[in-house]
Amino acid sequence: MAKSRNVFLVGPMGAGKTTIGRQLAEVLGKSFKDSDHEIVRRTGARIPLIFEIEGEEGFRRREQDVIDALTAEKDLVLATGGGAVLKPENRAHLSGRGTVFYLFGSIDQLLRRTRRDRNRPLLQTDNPRARLEALMAERDPLYREVADAVIYTDERSVRSVVKEIVARYRHMEKERQAK
After folding, report:
1. For strand 7-10 and strand 99-104, is the pairing parallel, antiparallel, or unpaired?
2. What is d(CA 59, CA 48) in angstroms, rounded to the nearest whole number?
3. pLDDT by residue (tens digit) across 43-94?
């Protein structure tokens, strides 16, 4: 089965998936959704509250349902949560239903971008750097497993990252159509 024309962004929290995804969708003429925002919309509860009441596993179940539904849509740019790749079902839906770009950022960059954000329950710790390092050690191989391409975002403008993704996506689409 050929992949649909969807574009999925994976990567750690703070990599820029939502910001880049919005602009990417505009350039590609697609709709944009963020899986975390969709969970909040559907539940009426902020993510830290979901974590507090249901734990991470409860949140991951909700995330799995949302990823399944959103990846089945058409002409979509989807920004996923940082942990979306943890469940094999999510990885299968992402890699099977669209083109996946892994937005990679260094730990220093991720810390700068997330240091004041209280909406990230996994970073509410005495040592956010150690927590990010542990998360990256666990998740980086999974991001790479599902990715059609890795995009490095350190010290780059949103515009330059979007431009690179568009060029690579269009090239991949031409190759797919030629097969």
Report:
1. parallel
2. 10
3. 999 988 998 899 989 999 999 999 999 999 999 999 999 999 999 999 999 9
Separation of first and last alpha carbons in the chain: 12
Candidates 92, 94, 78, 68; CA nearest to 34 is 78
Angle formed by the axes of helices 17-28 and 158-178, nearest 10°: 50
Task: For 99-126, give one letter per residue: b (16+ CB within 10 A) or e.
Answer: bbbbbbbebebbbebbeeeeebbbbeee
pTM of the predicted protein model: 0.91
Contacts of 46 (CB under 8 A, 6+ apart): 40, 119
